[in-house]
Amino acid sequence: MSKVKVIAAFRLTNGAYLGYHRHIHSALTEAGAEQLGLSELIGPYAAAIGEMENVINRPRALQESQLIAQLDKSRDSYWKAIYRCLAHLSNMSANDLLYPYALTAFTALKQFKGIQQHEYSRESEEIKAALRVAAEPKVKEALARLGLETLIDRLALINSELRAIDTKRSSLLGQILAIND
């Protein structure tokens, strides 16, 4: 008769630990849990392995976090381009044909200066508010005359993508935290 090998589970990586339990579950199932007197434990053990898989699969939420960071960087760039362009154009000569449009758009949107420095969800709400202001008829016309509607449209698209992914990430993190409770 051979001795039972002791496994220092605390030295295993999370994936190896999960693999170990999958192997044990498989061995118990193949050996016949009923014959070993473990039939009542197989179901709860399988459920515990399922919960462990959810906890170990956190990289899904981390992947969302990386995508959010990329989208936020892009969103920041679009916002800064729009804001800086308007700030620059509003300093034109009052005799310039574009000056009234630049002044209209900049006056309406200057309240949102620096929003790219806020955390994701607050920035998302402020971008949403800036987009509402940009959609007002006079401001929208001014932005179109200045050739900035494409940047505004792209900013809106990125902001909505980021909000959707952030909602998905929050849901995944909520599932993970619920498992840990």
Structure notes:
The protein is mainly α. It is 76% helix and 0% strand. The longest helix is centred in the last third of the chain and has 32 residues, at 149-180. It is rod-shaped and about 95 Å long. It starts with 13 loop residues before the first helix and ends with a helix. The model has no long low-confidence stretch (mean pLDDT 83).
Number of helices: 8
Q: Which bin fits the share of residues in helices?
A: over 70%
What is the radius of gyration computed over CA atoms, rounded to a whole number of angstroms? 28 Å
Low-confidence stretches: none
The biggest beta sheet reads:
none
Helix/strand class:
mainly alpha
Q: DSSP strand (E) fraction?
A: under 5%
Average pLDDT, all residues: 83
Order of helices and strands: HHHHHHHH
Q: Per the principal axes of the C-alpha atoms, what is the gross shape?
A: rod-shaped
Strand element count: 0
- What's the end-to-end separation, in Å? 42 Å
